[in-house]
Design brief:
The structure is a homodimer. Chain A is of the alpha+beta class. Chain A is about 40% helix and about 20% strand. Chain A folds into two domains: about 140 residues, Jelly Rolls, CATH 2.60.120.10; about 80 residues, Winged helix-like DNA-binding domain superfamily/Winged helix DNA-binding domain (Arc Repressor Mutant, subunit A), CATH 1.10.10. At the A-B interface, strand 4, strand 5 and helix 3 of A face strand 4, strand 5 and helix 3 of B. Chain A binds a DNA duplex through helix 6.
DNA sequence: GACGCGCATTGATTTACATCAAGGAAATGA
DNA sequence: TCATTTCCTTGATGTAAATCAATGCGCGTC
């Protein structure tokens, strides 16, 4: 099966200010451009499986992907939510230790792994930016550990909504109530993200609704009349 | 209060093969050496607090430290266990987002932060190694998220013991049963690490003992007659 | 329009772990 | 030596979330 892949010019790239290439000079972009190709992935499709060989690393240009790990009996935990500009893959290693799945339709800006490893040695701006992104990801992971280990179901849901708002809304928009967010993932995926069951997610969402903290429009849209009230429910620290 | 700090020659450094400086050439070590100082920290002391300014980054030469985050009401989650050769701090940023505490007496090999940031730009081997260490830490964090979100108390305890064995025992020694481990942290710290209470930790340890998976000698030493049996209890994947 | 299918909600019940409450054992110190 | 403290274990009880089990709702298909 031939994969449909193609190349695109960087100048109109929507993630050029945040992705791993954000700090690059034009000549550096030119070098990256030579090992790059775009790759669409349909919602629901597997991008890579744990332990599997992957011969590229990539930036997410558009769409949402999830990183997850499972126990043999099927219990699954999402260990990362990958949004546009985020980086997928591990340079210098052929395999990854988690599954990567397209949650929505996805556009990846892929770099062949071996030449990318070489570029990492040669282009300081790529390496610098990647290191910074890893530190940010590590901080987010630590916040998530606090959530998974110590927060109640209600706090988990509230934290999740706060995260969704922060990642999809400009800071200044937060002052214009009500805030609206479109949830990018299903109840089931939220449950896997928060270390809960789908039933608990559903119950806590309706509980927050009954308490007037949020209101729901359809299954995917959440309206938040008072963002501070929601943050208070989240136990702070995100 | 004057801090007691001092400098030490790198050639006998016990962590020189794994720390952030592991890939350095002699001339690079020389440069690092100029901004470095040793710093002892007593068990129980705080190394740094969340949000606080820290003017150094450091490698742990000996001892164990913990990274933790708390909610306002006191619930605490350990988000990292820092062992010898591990790196503490965030280059390029003045503050960190978690508390760092000395679990045992600690020896830190500190680098003044600002010159270290500069060195990171200039010495590719440091940057390279740091990036690799961050990826490893990220993988470990993801394993931990799976544990926190989806494992039972018994699996958590077993996973913790497996981790302790893997970090303190050479692979080939695992074939010589029984394996012995010294737990570096108290029950209370284990509870904070695993997202449990101290009582549950205690109960699960005695349950594993009664089932013949482990035996306990004093409060800190664990003997594992059959390491594979313990791994089976851990739900695999560590 | 009726059927099936995939998601989400809601209710009843169970259970794993937390919380509350006592004690025991080893370390520290007068 | 006996307090005192610190750390750990064990037991009784409570509870938050899981599990089990219907039911509802939108949506595409025949």
């Amino acid at each position: 099966m031939k994969e449909s892949t193609f190349k695109v010019d960087c100048s109109y790239c929507p993630i050029k200010h945040r992705a791993v290439c954000a700090r690059c000079e034009p000549d550096e972009l030119e070098i990256l451009n030579e090992i790059k190709y775009y790759k669409p992935v349909a919602a629901g499709e597997t991008v890579a499986l744990s332990g599997e060989r992957v011969d590229y690393v990539a930036s997410v240009v558009s769409g949402v992907a999830s990183l997850s790990k499972s126990l043999e009996d099927g219990r699954t935990q999402m260990v990362g939510l990958v949004l546009p500009s985020d980086f997928i893959g591990r340079p210098g290693r052929e395999t990854i230790a988690h599954d990567v799945t397209a949650v929505t339709d996805l556009t990846l800006c892929c770099f062949h792994r071996k030449p990318f490893d070489k570029i990492l040695e040669e282009l300081p701006h790529v390496r610098e930016r990647l290191l910074e992104m890893m530190f940010d990801e590590m901080d987010a992971a630590r916040d998530w550990m606090l959530l998974l280990g110590r927060k109640t179901a209600r706090e988990k849901i509230a934290s999740f909504l706060v995260l969704m708002v922060n990642r999809s809304t400009l800071p200044k928009e937060l002052f214009i109530a009500p805030v609206r967010v479109d949830l990018p993932i299903s109840r089931d995926a939220i449950a896997n993200f928060l270390g809960l069951t789908i039933e608990t997610v559903s119950r806590q969402l309706t509980a927050l609704r009954k308490d007037g903290i949020i209101s729901l429009e359809g299954n995917r849209e959440v309206i938040i009349p008072d963002f501070q009230a929601l943050k208070d429910e989240a136990g702070l620290s995100d």
